[in-house]
Write a structure and sequence with these properties.
Blueprint: E1 8-12, H1 16-27, E2 32-36, H2 39-49, E3 53-57, H3 65-74, E4 83-87, H4 92-101, E5 105-108, H5 113-176, H6 181-210, E6 217-220, H7 221-236, E7 242-246, E8 253-256, H8 258-274, E9 287-294, E10 301-308, H9 337-347, E11 351-356, E12 362-369
Parallel strand pairs: 1-2, 1-3, 3-4, 4-5, 7-9
Antiparallel strand pairs: 6-8, 9-10, 10-12, 11-12
Helix pairs in contact: 2-3, 5-6, 6-9, 7-8, 8-9
Length: 370
């Protein structure tokens, strides 16, 4: 059986009799007790022993308890060690001074040993809960990473297998019908499309791995929005009309990566275009892009809203929209656009979220630091 480590308590007081009384009481309860007689000794002992809790007298020569506590709390290596002040000041102001310095509790002189022991045990229990909470957070983070890796891996396998099936199927057609030039040409075109999608999946994964190292430059926000819309029309080859409603000043600039910005906005625009039923004419596929400056929370942000009046968010994916390979489209090789977009935007300290409109359709809101 593994023996649980005894708690380490540091008692700091310039009166040896106080230290002796506390040391005897705590050691009888199975605690390891270390002692220091002034603030400087306290700092040195803490560095050597890493105690679980400190009992610290306020009134000491040279460096008093308040200054000692402030130094401990300003050091990342010692800031989480709970400190209980021992004070002769019974006034409310004296106690508040100690708590403001970072102490978790206080004991007034003359010292009541039983009360002191109870307060020490309480803080040790809280400290243990704090450590367990940190461990749970680490495990939760690891579990989330594992789940994300699993989801991406499963999605990659599913999509690539489907696309490889397309390629193999059309290869068989070509082998069996090589004397039909039209059929060969049609099959090669579909194979080329499937291979392009496979390449895009691999490129998207590379984006996730590398987007933390983006180079940012100062760009005109209005010019960047217009170039993004133009790139969207050209890249996706859709006769889309995007209505831009901008309240930006002509000299509004942002620090951005043009390539990444255009790709993200393009993904939001193509999602808006594809939200309409397939037989909807181009002129009826309304897409509105609003640009403004958001100053409501924290630093000012560029705020872009892409609004459509399509079929809205399917209930089957409403809670999982930003997970890898979540899609309502029937074609294969899709489903990581929103995952990558949100991941990239958050690395740039922006945000992306989708909300259904009361009158139908969806509004995607994309914020980017200025």
């Amino acid at each position: 059986m593994i023996r649980k480590q005894q708690p380490k308590i540091l008692v700091v007081d310039d009166q040896p009799i106080n230290i002796k009384l506390l040391q005897r009481k705590l050691e009888r309860q199975g605690m390891d007790v270390y002692v220091a007689y002034n603030g400087r000794e306290c700092l040195s002992t803490v560095a050597e022993t890493k105690p679980d809790l400190i009992l610290l007298d306020i009134m000491m020569p040279e460096m008093d308890g308040i200054e000692t506590c402030q130094r401990l709390k300003s050091n990342p290596l010692t800031e989480t060690i709970p400190i209980i002040f021992i004070t002769a000041k019974a006034s409310k102001e004296g106690k508040l001074e100690g708590l403001d310095a970072g102490a978790v509790d206080y004991i007034t002189k003359p010292i009541d040993l039983d009360e002191t022991l109870a307060r020490v045990r309480t803080q040790l229990r809280l400290q243990e809960m704090f450590r367990e909470n940190l461990q749970l957070q680490v495990r939760l983070g690891d579990a989330r990473k594992a789940a994300a890796v699993g989801a991406i891996t499963q999605g990659i396998a599913h999509n690539l297998n489907n696309l490889l099936g397309v390629v193999v199927g059309y290869l068989d057609l070509i082998k069996n019908g090589h004397d039909s030039p039209d059929m060969v040409k049609h099959s090669v075109g579909l194979m080329d499309n499937a291979i392009t999608r496979m390449v895009n999946i691999i490129r998207q994964l590379g984006t996730i791995a590398n987007n933390e190292r983006l180079e940012l430059t100062t760009l005109s926000a209005s010019d960047l929005i217009e170039s993004s819309v133009e790139r969207y029309r050209t890249e996706y080859e859709v006769p889309s009309q995007v209505t831009i409603e901008s309240s930006l000043d002509s000299d509004t600039n942002i620090s951005a990566n043009a390539e990444t910005f255009e790709i993200i906005l393009g993904k939001l625009l193509i999602n808006a275009w594809e939200s309409y039923p397939k037989n909807t004419p181009a002129e009826e596929r309304s897409i509105i892009l609003k640009a403004s400056i958001d100053r409501e929370r924290g630093p000012a942000m560029l705020k872009l809203q892409v609004t459509d009046h399509g079929t809205g968010i399917s209930p089957e994916v409403s809670d999982t929209l930003f997970e890898p390979f979540i899609t309502t489209k029937t074609s294969v090789g899709r489903g990581m656009g929103l995952t990558i977009a949100r991941h990239t935007i958050r690395n740039l300290e922006g945000e992306l979220h989708l909300k259904e409109n009361p009158e139908g359709g969806v509004t995607a809101t994309f914020t980017h630091p200025l």
